[in-house]
Amino acid sequence: MINPKAHAQYNAGNKKTMSDEGGRDMQVEKRRELTAFLFLTFVLAPLLAVIIVAGYGFLVWMYQMIAGPPSV
Prior knowledge:
Layout: H1 4-13, H2 18-67
């Protein structure tokens, strides 16, 4: 168990408080979320879109190579 008196004495010697550390953690978390959002928006989503469209085009091309072009 944590001794409340020892905890209070330890915190009395520290100039930093829990709220200061929490604020810094929030800034780090916000930066991490912003980085993840920008990565997903400008890198991963366009890359996946190109891969999906190219993959579909490749499948259609391969199908037409085997089955022949569509005819009326």
